[in-house]
């Protein structure tokens, strides 16, 4: 997994990246009560706002960690947001994107770097 400084993660699986928010982000936001997912087929650019989350504490924009095309969204979240609250780095993934430029992944934090970021 790779991480952004705005607390999104991406797990690369060949040309597809699975994207979500980190456990740290979910903890800081509190219970997420509303989610607006991107549209399948939508083209996105690195750093572009792609989702909106609302929690009991605040609203938060989610940014795409890479450029590409959204190929799938986690429709289970529409029925059960607890997946996002309880397991944001596995079952609570947000969307999958077909990667345009694999070198963009090199701009992201690895796990150790991300832990240093959130602990500082």
How would you describe what is shown here?
The protein is an alpha+beta fold and 120 residues long. It has one domain (2-119): OB fold (Dihydrolipoamide Acetyltransferase, E2P) (Beta Barrel). The protein is built from 4 helices and 9 strands. It has a 6-stranded antiparallel sheet with strand order 1-2-3-9-8-5.
Tell me which oligomeric state these chains represent: single chain
Strand segment count: 9
Give the mean pLDDT: 95
CA-to-CA gap between the ends?
A: 20 Å
Sheet/helix structural class:
alpha+beta
CATH C-level class is: Mainly Beta
Strand order of the largest sheet: 1-2-3-9-8-5
Strand fraction equals 35-45%
CATH fold type: OB fold (Dihydrolipoamide Acetyltransferase, E2P)
Count of distinct structural domains: 1
Largest sheet properties: 6 strands, antiparallel
CATH superfamily (homologous) name? RNA polymerase II/Efflux pump adaptor protein, barrel-sandwich hybrid domain
Query: How do the helices and strands follow one another from N- to C-terminus?
Result: EEEHEEEEEHHEH
What is the number of helical segments per DSSP (H or I, 4+ residues)? 4
Radius of gyration from the alpha-carbon trace, in angstroms: 13 Å
Query: What is the approximate shape?
Result: globular
CATH structural architecture = Beta Barrel
Uncertain regions spanning at least 5 consecutive residues: none
Helix content: 10-25%
Supply database-style keywords.
single chain; 120 residues; alpha+beta; OB fold (Dihydrolipoamide Acetyltransferase, E2P); six-stranded antiparallel beta sheet; three-stranded antiparallel beta sheet
């Amino acid at each position: 997994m790779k991480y952004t400084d705005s607390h999104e993660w991406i797990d690369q699986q060949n040309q597809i990246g699975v994207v979500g928010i980190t456990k740290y982000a979910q903890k800081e936001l509190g219970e997420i009560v509303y989610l607006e997912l991107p549209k399948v087929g939508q083209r996105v650019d690195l750093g572009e706002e792609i989702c909106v989350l609302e929690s009991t504490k605040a609203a938060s924009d989610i940014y795409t960690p890479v450029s590409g095309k959204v190929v799938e969204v986690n429709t289970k979240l529409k029925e059960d947001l607890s997946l996002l609250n309880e397991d944001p780095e596995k079952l609570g993934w947000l969307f999958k994107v077909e990667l345009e430029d694999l070198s963009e992944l090199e701009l992201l934090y690895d796990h150790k770097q991300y832990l240093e970021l959130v602990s500082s």
